[in-house]
């Protein structure tokens, strides 16, 4: 693969991840499901467990996928590689979902309000580590990508 193709793949992966995790944490299931097609599969389970729940198609995925609306996402590692000559990409991600900061309001005389953000160190914030693998399918007619396979594994808490 030449440098130009590597750069294009990197741009596709970066743009996909920004859009996907933005929608996952800040939007609705109706927006999130637009990343999938009828041939898409979504699997979810716990790392190290043989139990993996798998859904196929938009309706099954819509009823099973979980929005992380009260979470912030931290992605620690991303790897990607082309898997065929059709433009499809394998994307592997490790990261964590963190509870969002709580915001409290305090009143100080004359009804002035001061918003106080409870800033805690990451170690004190509840977090869930995960590993996620996507197969992004290239649609040559529409010149875009959709999720063919999505495998999400939450890491066990020790």
Automatic annotation (TrEMBL):
<protein>
    <recommendedName>
        <fullName>NTF2 domain-containing protein</fullName>
    </recommendedName>
</protein>
<dbReference type="Pfam" id="PF02136">
    <property type="entry name" value="NTF2"/>
</dbReference>
<dbReference type="InterPro" id="IPR032710">
    <property type="entry name" value="NTF2-like_dom_sf"/>
</dbReference>
<dbReference type="InterPro" id="IPR018222">
    <property type="entry name" value="Nuclear_transport_factor_2_euk"/>
</dbReference>
<dbReference type="InterPro" id="IPR002075">
    <property type="entry name" value="NTF2_dom"/>
</dbReference>
<feature type="domain" description="NTF2">
    <location>
        <begin position="12"/>
        <end position="154"/>
    </location>
</feature>
